[in-house]
């Protein structure tokens, strides 16, 4: 009979190692299954009930050309799968409707670009209504309907999102506005030195026009505050009322069309 030379400490150490290995193996299996489920989800068509929400509440979506629709649907699915939607301020849950509207609008800004967009974004926070602003310099009592943080977070008022849906057809969209800020902060607006010079010229001329009170402009006067707000306001009009913008602001439309690599005014239903 051969006696074991292992004492109790060695046996306990082996048990600990075995448990750790089992936990690691379980994590690998769970991760593999999660990736497999994600792959199947991304490879499948967008659920019909989700697409119905998109085309009903994001008007431009119904006009996206057939050749771009598969990419658009995949962008929406990637956004929903990768970003954390969080209900805040007493809101019980983020509904499919709100999640789809946010994802579909964000995906419009990414649709024409070859590289991945929104990689720095982690969380989408939804409040039931206007919330206390956390933007640096804002007053303690200032309320906000939307904010974009450089740390990878966007925040929206559900009430304002629903309002913009109900009054579609004007160049106002809080989701597009805040994602334009996120885009400018993380992706960058200028594509080359030559374009940067052109963009600065267009920006200066259009801001002067807006500040002058030109009645022919379709842009929200909020864009006159500073270049960052002007870019966000211009992006709202570019995606919400592209035909009107191309007619009344042709140079600005052309510049934004180059930035987003899209011509939404040319989308035909």
Question: How would you summarize what this structure contains?
Answer:
The chain is α/β, with parallel strands linked by helices and 269 residues long. It is 55% helix and 8% strand.
Structural class: alpha/beta
Shape summary: elongated
Total helices: the number is 10
Beta-sheet strand percentage?
Answer: 5-15%
Question: Portion of residues in helices?
Answer: 55-70%
Largest sheet: 4 strands, mixed
The poorly predicted ranges are: none
Mean pLDDT: 88
Give the helices and strands as they follow along the chain.
HHHEHEEEEEHHHHHH
Query: What is the CA-CA span between the terminal residues?
Result: 86 Å
Rg is 24 Å
Report the oligomer.
Answer: single chain
Number of strands: 6
Widest sheet: strand ordering: 1-2-6-5
Structure in words:
The mean pLDDT is 88. Strand 1, helix 4 (96-110) and strand 2 form a beta-alpha-beta unit. This protein has 269 residues and is α/β, with parallel strands linked by helices. The protein has helices spanning 8-43, 48-57, 69-82, 96-110, 158-166, 174-186, 193-211, 227-240, 242-248, 250-260; strands at 84-87, 123-127, 131-132, 143-144, 146-149, 153-157. The strands form two sheets. The protein has a four-stranded mixed beta sheet with strand order 1-2-6-5. Strands 3-4 form a two-stranded antiparallel sheet. The radius of gyration is 24 Å and the shape is elongated.
Task: Give the topology, please.
Blueprint: H1 8-43, H2 48-57, H3 69-82, E1 84-87, H4 96-110, E2 123-127, E3 131-132, E4 143-144, E5 146-149, E6 153-157, H5 158-166, H6 174-186, H7 193-211, H8 227-240, H9 242-248, H10 250-260
């Amino acid at each position: 009979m051969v006696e074991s030379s292992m004492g109790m400490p060695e046996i306990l150490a082996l048990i600990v190692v075995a448990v750790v290995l089992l936990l690691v193996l379980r994590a690998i299996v769970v991760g593999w299954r999660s990736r497999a489920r994600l792959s199947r989800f991304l490879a499948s068509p967008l659920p019909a009930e989700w697409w119905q929400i998109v085309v009903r509440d994001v008007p431009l979506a119904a006009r996206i050309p057939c050749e771009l629709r598969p990419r658009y649907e995949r962008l929406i699915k990637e956004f929903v799968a990768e970003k954390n939607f969080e209900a805040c301020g007493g809101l019980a849950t983020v509904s499919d409707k709100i999640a789809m509207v946010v994802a579909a609008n964000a995906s419009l800004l990414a649709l024409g670009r070859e590289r991945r967009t929104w990689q720095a974004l982690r969380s989408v926070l939804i409040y039931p209504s206007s919330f206390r602003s956390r933007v640096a310099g804002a007053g303690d009592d200032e309320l906000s309907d939307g904010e974009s943080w450089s740390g990878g977070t966007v925040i929206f008022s559900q009430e304002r999102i629903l309002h913009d849906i109900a009054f579609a057809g004007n160049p106002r969209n809080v989701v597009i506005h805040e994602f334009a800020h996120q885009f400018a902060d993380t992706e960058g607006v200028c594509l080359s030195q030559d374009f940067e010079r052109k963009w600065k010229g267009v920006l200066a001329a259009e801001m002067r026009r807006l500040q002058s009170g030109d009645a022919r402009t379709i842009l929200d006067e909020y864009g006159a505050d500073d270049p960052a707000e002007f870019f966000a306001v211009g992006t709202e009009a570019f995606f919400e009322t592209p035909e009107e913008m191309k007619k009344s602001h042709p140079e600005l439309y052309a510049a934004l069309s180059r930035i987003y690599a899209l011509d939404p005014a040319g989308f035909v239903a």
